[in-house]
Amino acid sequence: MVFKGMNVFLAQFLLTAVQCQWSVTYSSMRACGLKGASVVLPCTYDYPWKSRGDTYQGGEWYKDQSGIVREHSKSDYPDCSLKIDKLSEDHFGVYHFRFYTALHVSWITNKTGQVALSITDLRVKECAVVEKQNQTELTCSTSCSLGSNTQYVWYKNGQPLQEMTTAYMLLYSTRPSEEGNYSCAVRGYEARRSPVVCAPRKQCWGVTYSSNSICALMGSSVDISCTYKYPRDHRVSKTFWFNKRKSRRLWVDLSLDKDYQNHTEYVGNKENSCTLRLKDMRESHSGEYAFRFTTQQGDTYSGLPGVNISVTALQVVVTPAVITEGERVTLTCSTSCTLSDKPTFIWYKNSVIYKHANTSGKNLYFNPVRGHDSSNYSCAVKGHKSLSSTAVFLNVRYLPKSVSASLSPFGEIVEGSSVTLTCSSDANPPVHNYTWHFSTTTLSMVKGTGESLSFNVTPVYSGLYHCEARNEIGSQNSNQVSVFFEVEHAVALTVKAGIILFMILAMLALGIVCARTWKAKSTAGAQVDNTQSDLSAVYSSISARPTTSGLTQRAESHDQGDVQYASVHFRCAYRQEGQKPEASATGPEEDCIVYSNVRNRSQL
After folding, report:
1. Which CATH class, in words, describes the domain spanning 17-119?
2. Of 152, 260, 289, 563, whose CB count within 10 A is highest?
3. Which backbone phi and psi does 87 adopt, to 5 degrees?
């Protein structure tokens, strides 16, 4: 039993000895890092059997709770330290290291060890020195210890104090030369300077602005937030603001400047607030504004450098400068400086609020742009709608649209008549060239140019016409217009010619009858009784009527309006030779009167 117990003890001892050779060691369980700087988490590792061919295969750092893993590069054995750059609050936490080898494939770590990382920034603290009444101590304070070897840099009024390298410095509050604005930094990280503290407090003067630059919209109002400090045993007697650009070396109170009349309002007090309100800003109001105050003790202080104010108007900038339909176009509500308070921009189209889906920040997009997007556009800032920009016309160029050809006069065209073809279109820029194209079944040619084309209709001009409208962008063709004249039917022409011939023959026959009647009257006058004086009337009626022949019937059926009717009447009076004619009831009567009447049947 004793021998068996010894074996168990020996085995446990050997196992423990081997296990002790697998190790992760942290030289410090805590680390402190400066915000924005770098920090190193110190670590070493060890493993046995290196002489037997065992090798380090890899390791990693991991963070509690978050589980964030940082790979560890194969550095020189046995260093496993971790360096973290650009520290931030996110790096705060507890870190562990683990590794494995070729023979020990599971993770090897220190189950009881860890490194707790804290993040700190710098602040200057002022404390009175109890032992010495006229002294005050400034401390470059941190929330955790950066180490005893850390060196510091002190600044007074922005200038480094070369002789000061520790975290502490003493000031004499009774020495006017000691007063100033102090800050500190860690050597090597001078850019990570602490906030400025005025010390000693008893004799500290200063003006603090909430912002060192402001971009104001023309016509709007802006507040310059400001606080000021002065020795506690002083009382403020006078406060005012001035524009350094205008005042130069003479501190001119803005309230007394005629250019600022009704444009300024001091909303501060004579204790610690010095806020100034500028109203209805103009471009001439741009400049560097500073606060100046005077105490009852006769001391004055000017808060220089001050606040730079830029006054800007809104302007719509179009990209590209020349726009063609189908392109991507961007409208930008541009300013000469970046407006404060993250403004929201509003767009107007023809002076009406334009709600468009493709807006982002101060940009309005058209992708693609269309001809109907041509309008006047302006922009404004939400809350300042009355201060909108000058409207800019978005001129979208496009090739001719809605090209149409028309013919006048409208209706049936007769050979030899005059017609006019007119071409109309919608284009931007306007059409600079109209071309008229003529085509038949056998040929195609250009007939002319210009917005309109006039000609007399002949067989040479009969066919199809269309116009081509062209501007700087391109061209489009119109619809086709037919120009053909109506040819009269041969039968109708024959009928008309026959009627005219018949009328001529009828007139000739009438003349012959009248001549014979006159001759008969002369020979019969001696034989007629003197008492016989009555007057005989002779009428002749001749009518041209259509025959029943097939030719005439076809003419009538083709166009009844072309058939003509003629009626001729003549009346001759007889009297005895030497006898005086009797008076007619209706007046004197000619020897022979001829009546004729021609009527168109279609008018009946």
Report:
1. mainly beta
2. 289
3. -65, 145
Q: Which residue has the higher pLDDT, 275 or 127?
A: 275
d(C-alpha 26, C-alpha 57), whole Å: 20
Residues shown for the chain: 604
CA 391/CA 317 separation, integer angstroms: 10
Average of per-residue pLDDT values in the chain: 80
* pLDDT band at residue 400 using 50, 70 and 90 as cut-offs: very high
User: Could you report how far apart the first and last alpha carbons of the chain are, in Å?
Assistant: 157
pTM higher than the cut 0.70: no
Q: Which of 212, 209, 291, 300 is nearest to 244 (CA)?
A: 291
| Residue with the two structure tokens 């060192």 | 212
- φ, ψ for residue 95, nearest 5 deg: -120, 145
The architecture (CATH level 2) of 314-394 comes to Sandwich (2.60)
Per-domain residue ranges for the chain? 17-119, 122-200, 205-311, 314-394, 401-483, 490-603
List C-alpha distances in Å: 489 to 408, 412, 418.
25, 15, 22
Please give the CATH number for the structural domain made up of 122-200: 2.60.40.10
Residue 316 has pLDDT above 50, yes or no: yes
> So what CATH class is 401-483?
mainly beta
User: In CATH terms, are 17-119 and 205-311 the same topology?
Assistant: yes
In this structure, what token pair is assigned to residue 2? Answer: 């004793």
Q: Which CATH architecture has domain 205-311?
A: Sandwich (2.60)
Phi, psi of 166 (to 5 degrees): -95, 175
Question: Token match 């860890």: residue?
Answer: 114
For tokens 């808060």, name the residue.
303
